[in-house]
Amino acid sequence: MYSFKCDYSEGCHPRILKALAESNITQEEGYGKDSHTKNAISIIKKLVQNENVDIHLISGGTQTNLISISSFLRPHEACICVHSGHIAGPETGSIEYTGHKVITVDSTNGKITTDKIQQVLDFHRNEHFVKPKLVYISNSTEVGTVYTKEEMRNLSEFCKKKNLILYVDGARLGSALAIKESNLTLKDMCDFSDAFCIGGTKNGALIGEALVIKNQNLKEDFRYNIKQKGALLAKGRVLGIQFEELFKDNLYFDLANHANEMASILTKGLKEANCKFFVESKSNQIFPILSNENIKILQEKFSFNIWEKVDNKNSAIRLVTSWATTKEAVFEFIQELKQLVE
Asked: Where are the transmembrane segments (predicted)?
């Protein structure tokens, strides 16, 4: 059975495994003070074209969000995100556990808009309410859509005007930036946000997210927060080696491009089978609407998530491609579906 459930079903790209093996016996400092982590940080600073940012390598996405948001906010402050935002759902209330309310708003194709943020600010008008302080977005979003450069610029300008922190969850940032229509670069993400993370786990690494903090006010004692939350790895080299390799010879974006290409082929085949879509996506997450009967048959050969019930007879499913997805698997899925709908 082939899985289209997620983009972390496989281990890591062979180059990363080779780099880990080759450095295995060499001795290094712990807790992110090793030469590989220092080099990875230097490379990322060059890519974002900002030598003044702080960069921290953290093992997972939920940990990164939890540590960042709880560090950035004061006790009475809250964050704003769309209803489908990762911190509002599949993070087990981790942000609320640290004492910070997550205020959710309706989205436009999975993306937050300034008018919705303003509505929250208008409602939370004084000290009898929590104070909205941080805007959380993910790129790509939970439904596979991506922010354009203009949308990011507008959000950034709005947040600056309203004295809000703009934090970008980039668990699938590789896929988002690899889409030409978004017209965004790592430098843009740094310019437009106060802090953002570059996801490795879902783009060829075994584990790891690189958190980039630009806002000077958010940097102080951040390593204390990482340690207190149990995420300061003694063998931080494991993260450093992976990001060092990912950003060597453009591997990171090559892997993201492959995932997007497989998704594009899959989307083309689904359209040929006259599928409708829950949302239009050009990233590595696709949401076709299929009959419940056909979904059940396809599940005998493929693994995927049922995203949302559309009506009594049809549901939207989520298909996710990865850096390791093969054309053979994509074509097999398309062929099986076409046989069902013919």
From this structure: none
Distance between CA 317 and CA 320 in Å, rounded? 10
User: What are the pLDDT digits (tens) for 149-182?
Assistant: 999 999 999 999 999 999 999 999 999 999 999 9
Same domain, 61 and 205: yes
Contact of 100 with 73, CB cutoff 8 Å: yes
The model's pTM is 0.97
Give the amino acid at 296.
Answer: K
The torsion angle over the Cα atoms of residues 58, 60, 66 and 67, rounded to 10 degrees, is: -10
Final residue of a domain: which of 246, 265, 298?
246
244-248, long-range: CB within 8 Å, 24+ apart, which pairs?
Answer: 244/19, 244/36, 244/37, 244/39, 244/40, 244/43, 245/13, 245/15, 245/16, 245/19, 246/16, 246/200, 246/203, 246/204, 246/205, 247/40, 247/43, 247/44, 247/47, 248/43
For 146, other C-beta atoms within 10 Å of its C-beta total 26
Please give the radius of gyration of the chain, using alpha carbons only, rounded to the nearest integer: 20
Residue 160 tokens, joined: 């600056």
Fill in the amino acid letter for 280: E
